[in-house]
Amino acid sequence: MLKPNLIVAVLCFCLAPTCRGQESFKYEQQINALVQPYLKADKFRAMSLAVIADGQVWMRDFGQLAESDTTRPTRDTVYEIGSISKVFTSILLADAIQSGSVKLETTIGTLMPAISETGLGKVITLKQLATHMSGLPKMPSNNAPSDPTNPFADYDRDLLIEYLKSATLTDPPGGQHAYSNLGAGLLGDLLAAKSGQDYESLLRTRILNPLKMNDTSLRLSESQSKRFAPPHNSALLSDRAWDFDALAGAGGIRSTTNDMVLFMQANLVPPENELGKAIDLAWKEHLPAGDNHRAMGLGWQIAGDGSTRWHNGRTGGYQTMMLISRDLHAGVVVLCNTAGSEIDPLAESIFQTVVGMSPKPREFAKSVDVDAAIVKRLAGKYQLAPGVEIEVVAKNDRLVVKLTGQTFLKVVPESDTVWNYTDVEAQLRFELPEQGPATKVTLHQNGRKMPAQRITK
Known about the structure:
The chain is α+β, with helices and mostly antiparallel strands. It contains 13 helices and 18 strands. The strands form three sheets. The chain has an eight-stranded antiparallel β-sheet with strand order 1-3-2-10-9-8-7-6, with helices on both faces. An eight-stranded antiparallel β-barrel has the order 11-12-13-14-15-16-17-18. It has a two-stranded antiparallel sheet with strand order 4-5.
């Protein structure tokens, strides 16, 4: 997430030259220098970047779609944009307000008769959903996905209503700011129900078609499926795409850099029509900054300069970021098919570059080269506790590691036997005899040393 005292935010990528407007882009060399450390550290599989600055639109793509697919991404590659979807959902709210069908203070029970007489139905407002002040938790307690790697797929409207009928909140609506996927998803569901359409149809009618964002959708066409970047987790292993039902408004949208440029342009200079008025309404500050939160528009996070709007997103196999400043007439969007790719600091640096600053390239912890034969000897399963194992898998000359019930994470070598996690503050120390596989590994985390004995041959 962005730091509240910084102007910046989001971005990164690329490779094949693509520049609209003038033939050259004066920040190209600096941006490429900022990206290089991420490439060398293997922080992502594929990323696509678009920048609006100095009256130009500049795009680049880096990497390849998958380890086994050397195809490079392009401006037409489709990615999940994750929580950037919340901005679209909030513009739909602003659009409904402009048309007079709802108000900011409309309560959720007004739009969902099944909960109209419940406590939550009478007090939570649409504005609170769009500014994360509803008191609702991040996720509903009755979400029990049949596939944990696709956590929103089977959460339907019946489950949503069931939850809202009986839910009790830790904090009252309007009390504490608490980021809520549930709240944003509920907002999208309510607006769709009010319109008599499903969420995607409403989105297409009110935003996508007017802006000619023809490659943005929830459900992929045959053509889009062929251009859909395969998802990867932070260990660069294949993951799975996420599907959405009732909570689609929280993170279900998929798009391309070509389309996201159109969206940024519309927010920089809103069209002179009803959609433009809705974009302006969502852009305005609706929640002042507080002790534990940034200022917000509707859906938008507002940076510390008071001008720059941004939002990032992350699903199981994708990470994204978008930042727009009307005062600087600049915008940046980054779409990446690798969760945990750490693109926020890179995006921040790129945005600083195009507004005239000189950020330095990031330095990642240096790793040593380890012989693939030694790496193979470290691989195996180690018992950390009854029912809890550390699974270590060799991928050529690198390791990925998973604890029981969790996903694989990437580790990098400090020496042959000392490996550091890249996503968390933790370290693995292996005991490696002169011959044969490692006999033991010790997990160092939060000041604790947790030994695990090898349980595989």
